[in-house]
Amino acid sequence: MDVTADWCLTCKANKTLVLDHAPVVSALAAESVTPMQADWTRPDPAISRYLESFGRYGIPFNAVYGPAAPDGIVLPELLSSDVVMEALSRAAGATGTVVARP
Question: How does 27-65 read in b/e, with b if 16+ C-beta sit within 10 Å?
């Protein structure tokens, strides 16, 4: 789950430098992965509640879910390819299926 907004410079940096580059872009395009994004450009109570459920009140916010991580793996605000790939692997566990969703 990628919670982002048009006005978030750190979100844009994460996208440009990590999420849109190898190996992350290929991993997110895999058939076993369901990437999801929440656009918080305009206030949205559902997104606010989602963030609050993790004790967060701002963005960027990224979490990876999967069979081995049903409650999500929260990523740091500044992403790296290594951090994202490791979270995808941990979340997939033995099944290899990852769902990036709330």
Answer: bbeeeebebeebebeeeeeebeebbeeeebeebbbbbbb
